[in-house]
Write a sequence for this structure.
């Protein structure tokens, strides 16, 4: 299952956006209201959305154009990727995408909430 968020413009330099996204404690600022959030280490955090189980995300990869977070558990393998493109020195285009390996029943159940979640993260990222 692959879900792509809308492309957004962040009024920050690309390097600043990468720094923001690679500091896992900053994800608390992007979480929807009412979400549980806890930093578990330098590269891992836990979050839970209403009606969904707790999920641990770990920083997996960082390049000059991309930040990838992945599930810390093999039970629900997925990644959350931020693709970044410099537009101007102080403007960055960002697009979040979610890719997960779920059985058809699970995919049907989580597609709506995850699509909404990716949209909410994108909206808040545009405001940093």
């Amino acid at each position: 299952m692959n879900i792509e968020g809308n492309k957004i413009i962040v009024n920050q330099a690309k390097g600043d956006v990468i720094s923001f996204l690679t500091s896992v404690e900053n994800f608390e600022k992007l979480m929807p209201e009412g979400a549980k959030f806890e930093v578990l280490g330098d590269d891992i955090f836990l979050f839970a959305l209403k009606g969904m189980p707790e999920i641990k995300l770990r920083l997996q990869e960082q390049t000059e154009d991309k930040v990838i977070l992945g599930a810390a558990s093999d039970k629900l393998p997925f990644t959350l990727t931020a693709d970044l493109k410099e537009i101007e020195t102080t403007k960055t285009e960002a697009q979040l995408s979610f890719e997960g390996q779920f059985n058809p029943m699970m995919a049907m159940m989580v597609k709506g909430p995850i699509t909404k979640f990716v949209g909410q993260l994108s909206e808040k990222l545009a405001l940093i």
User: Anything to note?
Assistant: The chain has one domain: 2-125. The beta strands are 2-4, 8-10, 36-41, 44-48, 55-62, 66-71, 78-88, 91-100. Residues 104-125 form the longest helix (22 residues).
